[in-house]
Amino acid sequence: MAENTIIRRHVLTADTGTRTITSVQAHEIHFAPGQKGGLHFHPCPVTGYIIEGTAMLQVDGEGEQVLPAGSAFFEPADARILHFDNHSDTEPMVFVAFYLLNGEQKLIEMLDA
Questions:
Q1: 37 neighbors 6 (Cβ within 8 angstroms)
Q2: How many whole angstroms separate alpha carbon 99 and alpha carbon 21?
Q3: Which of 17, 56, 77, 80 is at a distance of 20 to 30 A from 39, taking alpha carbons?
Q4: For residue range 29-85, what is the model confidence (pLDDT) as tens digits?
Q5: In the 8-state DSSP scheme, what is residue 12?
Q6: Residue 50 located in a structural domain
Q7: 14 inside domain
Q8: 21 in a domain, yes or no?
Q9: Is pTM, for the whole model, over 0.90?
Q10: DSSP state of 30
Q11: Would you put residue 72 in left (φ > 0), alpha (ψ -120 to 50) or beta?
Q12: Range 33-36 contact pairs with CB under 8 angstroms and sequence separation of 24 or more
């Protein structure tokens, strides 16, 4: 392969509907081994990328997804997120979340289980 070759690997397509997006916030988030995200929702769509470790994601009404490092994910706006957990009890997990905002919005709302 030539030294100046750019390689692109498609990792995610997410439909955000007709929603207006005025800004994007990117956050690097670290979970300890076995750490759970808790029941929550986001007022805005969220896309993300697992940098290290393995996540387990479950959006309400969908099956569980095990996401190893290198995987991308999508959490729709206002959908209950039943699980976004570190899937490993022994290894940390690091991911980047991209919050697709429309004006001033909270990033996350925690819910009672």
A1: no
A2: 10
A3: 17
A4: 999 999 999 999 999 999 999 999 999 999 999 999 999 999 999 999 999 999 999
A5: -
A6: yes
A7: no
A8: no
A9: yes
A10: E
A11: beta
A12: 33/86, 33/88, 33/89, 33/90, 33/91, 33/92, 34/86, 34/88, 34/89, 35/85, 35/86, 35/93, 36/83, 36/85, 36/86
Tokens of 51: 């940098």
95, 50 contact by CB (below 8 A): yes
Domain of 91: which CATH number? 2.60.120.10
Confirm whether 35 is domain-assigned. yes
Q: What total of structural domains would you count in the chain? A: 1
DSSP assignment string, 44-59: S-EEEEEEESEEEEEE
Which H or E run contains 83?
strand 81-86
The CA–CA distances, whole Å, from 41 to 3, 4, 9, 112 equal 43, 42, 29, 11
d(CA 33, CA 22): 35
What does the pLDDT look like over 93-112, one tens digit per residue? 999 999 999 999 999 999 99
